[in-house]
Amino acid sequence: MDHRDPLIRATAMPTDLNPYGGVFGGWLMAQMALGAGSLASRVGKGKAVVVHGTDFTFPGAMAVGDELSIYCKVSVTGNTSLTIEAEGVARDRNSEETTKVSHGTFKFVLLDDDDKPRLVHGTDD
């Protein structure tokens, strides 16, 4: 099994639930965006803003108290952008059992100090 380090971890709390008692898909999307943004800033070595999100799926469910781990990888590197795939995996609060609960793709644009797009790798030399 491949070892992966999560970009972030969060515990689902009662305020994260929808009226049906499950964790909001929007909360899962926000956690994935936070993890993907962390990776974009690391890889891009600076400010990175999300400009697009797509292909969201929610194949599993989480309960309050479950721990969510967000795993991310860069799938496409453009001139000024990074496309990052994010996956959410829930761990049952009282066991080691895990379930994939979310997946999505985010596109980030790297910005300079003037909030203008900048190259992913270095600058024009």
From TrEMBL:
<protein>
    <submittedName>
        <fullName>Acyl-CoA thioesterase</fullName>
    </submittedName>
</protein>
<dbReference type="InterPro" id="IPR040170">
    <property type="entry name" value="Cytosol_ACT"/>
</dbReference>
<dbReference type="InterPro" id="IPR033120">
    <property type="entry name" value="HOTDOG_ACOT"/>
</dbReference>
<dbReference type="InterPro" id="IPR006683">
    <property type="entry name" value="Thioestr_dom"/>
</dbReference>
<comment type="similarity">
    <text>Belongs to the acyl coenzyme A hydrolase family.</text>
</comment>
<keyword id="KW-0378">Hydrolase</keyword>
<feature type="domain" description="HotDog ACOT-type">
    <location>
        <begin position="2"/>
        <end position="114"/>
    </location>
</feature>
<dbReference type="Pfam" id="PF03061">
    <property type="entry name" value="4HBT"/>
</dbReference>
